[in-house]
Amino acid sequence: MEHADTRTLADFVNHAGPDLLEKAGPFAEYIGGLQSRGEYSYHRTLVSGAGGTVRVLDPRTGGERELISLAANNYLGLAGRPELVEAACAAIRRYGPGLCGSRFLSGTYDLVQQLERELAEFEGYEEVAVFTTGYQANVGVLAALLRRGDLAVIDRLSHASIVDGCRVAGCQMRPFQHNDPADLDQILARHGGECRNVLVVVEGVFSMDGDICPLPEIMEVAARHGAYLMLDDAHATGVLGGHGAGTADHFGLTRKPDILVGTFSKTLAGTGGYVAASHEIVNYVRHYGRSYMFSASPAPGTVAAVLAALRLLRAEPDLRRQLMQNVDFIYQGLKQAGFHTYPDPPESAIITIRIGEDAVVHAMSRDLYEGGLLTSTVVYPAVSPNEGRMRLSLSAAHTEDILRQAIEVIVATGRRHGIV
Ligand SMILES: Cc1ncc(COP(=O)(O)O)c(C=O)c1O
Q1: Mind listing the domains of the chain with CATH numbers?
Q2: What is the pLDDT at residue 38?
Q3: Which of 10, 53, 170, 334 gets the highest tally of CB atoms within 10 A of its CB?
């Protein structure tokens, strides 16, 4: 199938002309082209909450449409639970919509401290600091701890918030091959000695592909080189491990990474993030993490809902089993139809279909939308240009009937674009 415009977002990062704002013009024209062909799959207007299906406003008709959602990271389906809504409403009644201040000044309240205590107990760390977003948690902890002369060795596919945290810190940053302890070993052997402090950073479940990091091997390599280890478990919390506590729980590790970062924006069905570590590290981050100190604290309604979500996650292990059953159902359906999904077999709640050219991914997402499906269009800058993929996020909220319909639409679209 011919694709109208093979440019990617990477083509508009720089502009040869002298005018700072000039690049916005050609970019608007590129986005306008995608929109006119129905291929712009971002900023869709939802008129319902996250669930197995969602309602969106259709830009062409102006009316509402119901779509199957494989786009939200609502892994255990907690976003739709009335317990969260009740908890949020009660907290808003008591504290109001916001505390109008940062954690540091007027934004620390008993509910957020309660959440910190319960998270610390759940994750098995001495202390937790709650941030307003997971992005800020990564930037805050990295920029608080690392300085010029320090080295961060990060997985090549690290999330933008990890890269940005290292940039703000001003430390040296060296990527190692994705999920490759041998490459990490070589980089630490070559460069570890040149720097004062070395921090290795990995994700438990990689956000774009859903594959699990070989944490025991990575920990062994880091320890052998005297490096510290930080784990971002954004997509593992509530999904991996016998207790749903994430990647260390999955591998049954008794020793934990030195620092753990988590988010509320996936399984815990809210917004916010956290850093778990020893009391000394968390205390330091609370006083040097600028994204913690210079940003308003998370809203009471959100904090109360996340607390309710954490308690449900712990009380209802069947949700995790349902999620994994759903992952397997869609994987088997796609495999039987001839799709190569990644990882194969799936390792978490995320399954990807690797496509390649960003233009093809845009065209496919239009056809999936036409077929009644909302998926994540993953192109640059989330991944390298023309390494585009479709990301499917499964949820315990999906029914077998929904998943059957989803498979049908994906198979028909894949065939049309020669992906199968
Ligand atoms: C691996 C990873 N880390 C951090 C974040 C940031 O989390 P939040 O959405 O809470 O800002 C995300 C979310 O996209 C993520 O996927």
Answers
A1: 33-76+318-416 (3.90.1150.10), 81-315 (3.40.640.10)
A2: 87
A3: 334
Name residues of the chain where pLDDT drops below 50: none
DSSP 8-state symbol, 270: S
Give 332-394 as a DSSP string: HHHHHTT---BSSS--SSEEEEEEE-HHHHHHHHHHHHHTTEE-EEE-TTTSSTT-EEEEEE-
Give me ligand 1 centre to Cα 239, in Å: 15
**Does residue 230 contact residue 200 with C-beta atoms inside 8 Å?**
yes
Q: Strand (E) positions, 249-311? A: 259-263, 273-277
pLDDT tens for each residue of 99-143: 999 998 999 999 999 999 999 999 999 999 999 999 999 999 999
Q: What is the pLDDT of residue 18?
A: 75
Cα–Cα distance for residue pair 7/13, rounded to 1 Å: 12
**Cα 418 to ligand 1 centroid, rounded to whole Å:** 32
Query: What is the residue with the minimal CA distance to atom 16 of ligand 1?
Result: 207
Q: What is the pLDDT of residues 131-183, one digit of tens each?
A: 999 999 999 999 999 999 999 999 999 999 999 999 999 999 999 999 999 99
Q: Which residues, judged by CB distance below 6 Å to any ligand atom, belong to the binding site of ligand 1?
A: 133-135, 138, 159, 161, 203, 207, 232, 234-235, 263, 265, 273
Kindly give the number of the ligand 1 atom that is closest to the alpha carbon of 264.
10
Q: Are 55 and 329 in contact (CB under 8 A)?
A: no
- What distance in angstroms lies between residue 138's CA and the mean position of ligand 1's atoms? 9
Q: Which of 75, 263, 275, 291 is the best mutation target for the ligand 1 pocket, counting ligand atoms within 8 Å of the beta carbon and taking the most?
A: 263
Which contacts of 249-254 are long-range, i.e. CB under 8 A and separated by 24 or more positions? 250/204, 250/212, 250/215, 251/215, 251/216, 253/215, 253/216, 253/219
Residue 359's Cβ-side half-sphere holds a number of Cα atoms within 13 Å equal to 11
Between CA 363 and CA 357 the distance in angstroms is: 10
Pocket probe for ligand 1: among 119, 135, 260, the residue whose CB has the most ligand atoms within 8 Å is 135
Task: Show Cβ contacts of residue 70 under 8 Å, excluding neighbours closer than 6 positions.
Answer: 373, 374, 375, 376, 392, 393, 394, 406
Nearest CA to ligand 1 atom 8: 134
The per-residue pLDDT for 2 is 59
Length of the chain: 420
Please report, for the chain, how many H helices and E strands are present, in that order: 14, 14
Cis? peptide before 18, omega within 30° of 0: no
